[in-house]
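Hi R.,

As promised on Friday, here is the backbone we talked about, encoded as structure tokens. Could you run it through your design pipeline when you get a chance and send me back a sequence?
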């Protein structure tokens, strides 16, 4: 005898959330595709923007990378954000590090970018688990308050890691 009738089990699945997640994964994989050129465009823009900015410019670029990853990961799949942000920012940071412009190690920045991409606590497209963790009993406003605190803590920890360990 079955534990639960199939029809009852299927009725319990949040199909709208499942469809939304599937659509967001398709969109995210399209954006991260090499044919779209998003990472190349970002990398070219960064290279020209920090051309003569020196070490201070590299720090600003690193903070921008963390912020972009932290915000984008809550609206796009975190694996895509990690791939796009590291592919766009790390080559610029490697060049600055090898040329002596900055002593900030690019691999520590890459690690923190990936950490920021994992800080996807805010919205359903951030992670497949968010809708299931928050569930139907938690409204968006309450979820936003909890998630914002977690995201702020993650950002502070990341800043401490990269600037105290990465130099």
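Update: got your reply. Pasting your designed sequence below so it's all in one thread:
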């Amino acid at each position: 005898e079955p534990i639960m009738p199939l029809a009852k089990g299927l009725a319990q699945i949040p199909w709208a959330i499942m469809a939304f997640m599937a659509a967001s994964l398709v969109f995210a994989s399209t954006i991260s595709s090499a044919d779209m050129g998003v990472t190349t465009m970002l990398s070219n823009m960064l290279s020209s923007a920090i051309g003569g900015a020196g070490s201070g410019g590299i720090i600003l670029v690193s903070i921008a990378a963390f912020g972009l990853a932290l915000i984008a990961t809550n609206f796009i799949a975190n694996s895509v954000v990690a791939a796009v942000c590291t592919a766009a920012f790390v080559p610029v940071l490697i060049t600055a590090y090898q040329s002596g412009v900055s002593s900030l190690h690019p691999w520590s920045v890459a690690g923190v970018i990936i950490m920021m991409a994992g800080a996807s606590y805010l919205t359903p497209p951030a992670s497949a688990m968010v809708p299931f963790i928050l569930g139907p009993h938690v409204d968006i406003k309450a979820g936003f308050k909890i998630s914002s605190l977690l995201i702020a803590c993650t950002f502070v920890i990341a800043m401490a890691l990269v600037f105290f360990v990465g130099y």
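One thing I noticed while checking it: The two ends are 63 Å apart (CA to CA).

Thanks again,
M.
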